[in-house]
Amino acid sequence: MIIIKSAREIEQIRKSCRIVVDTFEYIEKIIKPGIETREINRKVDKFIRSRGAKPAFKGYRGFPASACISIDDEVVHGIPDKRKLRPGQIVSIDIGVEFQNYFGDGAKTFIIGDIPERIEKLLRVTKEALYKGIDAAKVGNRLSDISHSVQSHVEQAGFSVVRDLVGHGVGRKLHEDPQIPNYGPPNQGPRLKPGMVLAIEPMVNLGDYQVFFDDDDKWTVRTVDGSPSAHFEHTIAITENGVDILTDGL
């Protein structure tokens, strides 16, 4: 069931999303070659708690960290550890925040040092695809119009969208209905209505779209062909006056 949020609830979600944005601004200051991913996680956890909020991922279905930190061919759900970041890597960080019983969610892929032009293009197209999806999130459109907009932009650029993972509703819970695939035909699924709050999150691979769960930690999702993957995410609210990007500034 898709839960329609009131104006008051959207403002509460916005507060959580503001902390998500502020956390990413903090990460921008500390992320650099040589830092361990577990150190980023520790600092993120401390920062979120300093704002009177909770890291939404910590303990969620048993996830052991406050941030998902995924490097290169890791698509999502990477577990922070003692690995040190190196120049030439891309690092996708996904963060959820719970503040006053409401959730916000966002993700961003960072560049460490210099990267090849084709990977720069991967990040650019993934972020563009996110905004294509957001542009399609209009009252009266259908849910799959978001999915189709993302897929069309990605595939026109020669990349592939991950099909085994989806965006989602967000609000009183971190993951709510509806699920939002990043691929599919247009004009399918429920009509988009004012008050829907959605986390739209394209995950885009340089190579093939197929992925698998790491056998060792059971969490990390990797590309089957070992190609790099990028991930960007915004939490948005659909209103009569258009889309309100609650994680604006991310």
Order of strands, widest sheet = 8-7-9-14-15
Helix percent reads 25-40%
Please summarize the sheet with the most strands. 5 strands, antiparallel
Quick one: CATH class? Alpha Beta
The dominant shape is: globular
CATH topology name: Creatine Amidinohydrolase
Helix-strand category? alpha+beta
Report the sheet-strand fraction.
25-35%
Q: What's the structural domain tally?
A: 1
Mean pLDDT: 98
CATH architecture: Alpha-Beta Complex
Radius of gyration equals: 17 Å
Instruction: Supply the CATH superfamily name.
Output: Creatinase/methionine aminopeptidase superfamily
N- to C-terminal separation?
Answer: 28 Å
Low-confidence stretches: none
Q: Can you write the helix and strand succession as a string?
A: HHEEEEEHHEEEEEEEEEE
